[in-house]
Design a protein that fits this description.
Elements lengths: L2 H7 L8 E7 L5 H12 L3 E3 H10 L3 H11 L6 H12 L8 E4 L5 H12 L4 E8 L2 H9 L1 E4 L5 E3 L18 E2 L6 H15 L2 H7 L3 E6 L5 H15 L11
Parallel strand pairs: 1-3, 1-4, 2-3, 4-8
Antiparallel strand pairs: 5-6, 5-7
The structure holds BIS(adenosine)-5'-pentaphosphate and magnesium ion.
């Protein structure tokens, strides 16, 4: 057991599992941080954007329907996304804690989720990643994503060792269809009008909201800061010691 896990293991056993919502503008680092926290905690990282893109890649009927919505920087319908998340949260791997990325992002989604929490034994916490506008544009225009494993890179901050090739599996790196400048501007507007008010709605529903200014922090420091906040809140974020 590592020192970190030994520290966490001293926590009382009766604490509720944490349900962490990674919240923030496009490019604020939800996906990057979510992947790191998953490694640290063993919790599933449920990213609604990834789930929708998977449908598009597989050319399912849902994917074909969603393709033009995502490409335009608009939001998928609330009932569809909420149902998708609700089904996934029913899996047993969510029982010890989970990380939501990109959900909720409208008031109806937030109200539905608050209702879901009210009947369950989780300690929900929203982590708001704050990054200023110019840094968001820099991040999104330089992002590259592995077409196979979904690993996230940045041309300047976190480049792959070989240009356009994933370090993990050698697959090609791609530019996301919605990272074109005009779509990025639409996504930022959608965020301002429909998603920004969500944090306040959840706070009013009694859900803890923690903000982290992370525009000048590297990804490891952001994950460390979140981990520190979660520890302070008192959740148990120990990774199960599975044999490798
Ligand atoms: P989604 O995939 O969730 O996109 P998003 O919210 O716009 O966020 P991004 O994935 O673009 O950014 P991120 O915050 O994950 O940043 P990342 O870690 O990649 O949603 C896509 C679409 O799906 C939506 O537009 C909508 O159509 C639909 N959708 C999804 N959820 C929905 C919902 N709930 N309801 C309805 N529709 C929904 O990082 C970005 C870049 O920055 C990378 O290059 C990375 O390497 C770099 N970077 C990250 N952290 C740092 C750091 N600390 N320092 C320097 N660089 C960093
Ligand atoms: Mg993302």
């Amino acid at each position: 057991m590592t020192t970190d896990n030994a520290d966490i293991a001293r926590k009382p056993a009766l604490q509720k599992p944490l349900a962490v919502m990674l919240f923030g503008a496009p490019g604020s680092g939800k996906g990057t941080t979510g992947k790191m926290l998953t490694k640290l905690t063993g919790w599933p990282h449920l990213a609604t954007g990834d789930l929708l893109r998977e449908q598009i890649t597989r050319k399912t009927s849902l994917g074909l329907e969603m393709q033009s919505i995502l490409a335009a920087g608009q939001l998928a319908p609330d009932d569809l996304v909420s149902r998708m998340v609700g089904d996934r949260l029913g899996w047993s791997d969510c029982e010890a804690g989970f990380l939501l990325d990109g959900f909720p992002r409208t008031i109806p989604q937030a109200e539905g989720l608050a209702q879901w929490f009210s009947g369950r034994n989780f300690r929900p916490v929203l982590i708001h990643l704050w990054v200023e506008y110019n840094e968001i544009l820099r991040r999104l225009t330089g992002r590259r994503t592995c077409s196979n494993c979904g690993a996230i890179y940045h041309l300047e901050s976190t480049p792959s060792q070989v240009p356009d090739v994933c370090d993990n599996d050698g697959a090609a790196l791609t530019v996301r269809a919605d990272d074109k400048e005009e779509v990025v501007l639409q996504r930022l507007q959608t965020y301002q009008t429909q998603t920004w008010p969500v944090a306040e709605t959840l706070r009013k529903n009694g859900i803890l909201v923690e903000a982290i200014e992370c525009g000048e922090m590297d990804p490891e420091s952001v994950a460390d800061r979140i981990r520190w906040r979660l520890d302070r809140i008192g959740g148990s974020i120990a990774k199960k010691n599975k044999p490798e």
